[in-house]
Amino acid sequence: MRMIEPTAAVPILDARLLEAGPEARARFVTQLVEACRGTGCFQLLHPPLPSGLSREALQAARDFFALPLEEKLALDIAHSQHFRGYSRMSNGRDWREQLHLGREEPPGGLDSEPTYLRLQGPNPWPRDERWRRVFLTYLHAVEAVGHQLLEALAQGLGLTGNPFAEELAKEPYLVMKLIHYLPQPGAEAPPRSGVASHCDFSWLTLLLQDELGGLQVRSSSGEWVDVEPRPDALVVNLGELMQMATRGVFQATPHRVTNRSHEKARTSIPVFLCPNLRSRVTPLPVPHEWAAPPCVDPAHVHRVVPLERMPRAEHPLAPFVFGEAEWKRKGRGIWCAECCA
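== 2-oxoglutarate-dependent ethylene/succinate-forming enzyme ==
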């Protein structure tokens, strides 16, 4: 049972090793840490998801985007106080439509509660009950996979207990996007970027992609490499929160998407695993000998926290409430420190 392709720019890990005994788990943890200290991205084969659920979720997403525009607009994100719903993006950075979903919760941010708790609340759903069942089942199944990976990372860092389960990701804030990358507009038109190069504001992002490809991540050597689709695999990348908490030992992964097809849309479903909105993001005690030199962006990458303000060994993270940072990003629309300066 091979766990990783050593020469691959995007490592390949086998999730079955997590439950294959102590020695196999230890090998997985070692390779997981190596992947996180490198590109910060890997493909996870055989994630423990219910059989057929990934294919069902992708098909349900395709079915949603095939609805008439007026039905999709009935779920417009502008109608939601909780940043859930449908949107269409057509600009120099984005060429896609998407549906934002999350935990199904009562509305937050009421009365004397902190404003950032408005980020929690109910989802807008299409009329067909099938969508609600499929997407909530998929969301919580992927959440469980994410917790397994965070537990393995805590083990790899030599942390006492599992701070992710105990505090840092207990009842996490979850965001799931169904994304429909539109076909290229025409042979004579310039190619459109599905989403420009960016980093996620999460602990981990777990992505299900269809067979079309088009996802690229920036390797530790600075080149853009394709993440080839693999049936039923999840692409996992680290977000800015992980880079901040580890003082740059683990890197957030710059990534971008271009749907190269002129005929077919590309469908993907990322799940962003974040801390609980009320929790404080604090430094993790990573080994001093793992200290990494500051990374450099050779070209602009959309980041919530600019690289020059990223915590490092000599400048540790000042703890902050995650919900306040996430509200600044969504509620106030500061999604890139440089673009929204």
